[in-house]
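Subject: Vacuolar cation/proton exchanger

B.,
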Amino acid sequence: METPQIEMGGFKVNSPQVPNGVLRPTVSSSWNSRGTVERALKSIRIVIFTSKLNLLMPFGPASIILHFTTRRHGLIFLFSMLGITPLAERLGYATEQLAIYTGPTVGGLLNATFGNATEMIIAVYALKNGMIRVVQQSLLGSILSNMLLVMGCAFFAGGVVHRNKDQIFSKATAVVNSGLLLMAVMGLMFPAVLHFTHSEVRQGASEVALSRFSSCIMLVAYASYLYFQLSGRSNIYSPIGSEEAPIEDIAEEDEEAEIGMWEAVTWLAVLTLWVSFLSEYLVNAIEGASDSLNLPVAFISVILLPIVGNAAEHASAIMFAMKDKLDITLGVAIGSSTQISIFHFVLLLVG
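Prediction pasted inline below.
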């Protein structure tokens, strides 16, 4: 006697009658597990094997091997730096894929946050090792790199591709971010001025009090900025000429996601952990690399480390500028600098 089958939600269920009249289903889900494996393999192929920059990934494990087998800190530093570079770029890619599912506003925030993850991890390890000057210089270098190198390369690439037209961007977007940057500069500068002018009423106490007060003000300003972005009340981030349209209708992306949402989340977690792992070896080799390569620690902190950490922003900003999306380019470059200056500095100061 042939066993009847019932289709339930895409599954075929065998439903033989048992003596008490209750159905005892047997679900066949082999096709489901096969599909999961295929999606996982496709995700690995897209994330790992589609970017030529990933050819640098083997330098990461090589730096770990060198750390335990040799004392050549210069090579360890260079290999760690080369190994982190593709990871930072892939972090940006995974964030962009996740942004397709979350929408443009949350996606922009995720892009700025995870784009700065590399700098933040390196700064945390440096602070843990007592390298305060390296922390200060690396964060300062990240701000300068985003504002000058990343934005300059993006404008140049956009101008070359669209040489026959004028590229435009929203003035209000630039004004908001520039205002926050100016406030961050003032908040960081006032305690330094008080320290170097020796005009404190109470030696040391006034400087600390002013630093804490400035930190609180910057945190409140950054929280307000996030609320302003996420509330969706303003259309100033809309493209020029379409101020009356809702943001959600304007920001419809033509591109489709190459990987699933949870796959993007998984890759973000995996890549962040791997960057964190390599950053420890990178930071531990900074001073030795400075001696062996005959490079000042300031040059390594201000120039080399930000270039590695800003790989994701660099690639994203240039790509959007070449697509004539200067508003997103400014959001990536200036937004990243804003987050570092007004949030990361304060977070590390508290830590």
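Confidence is low (pLDDT under 50) at residues 6-13, 15-28, 233-237, 239-253.

T.
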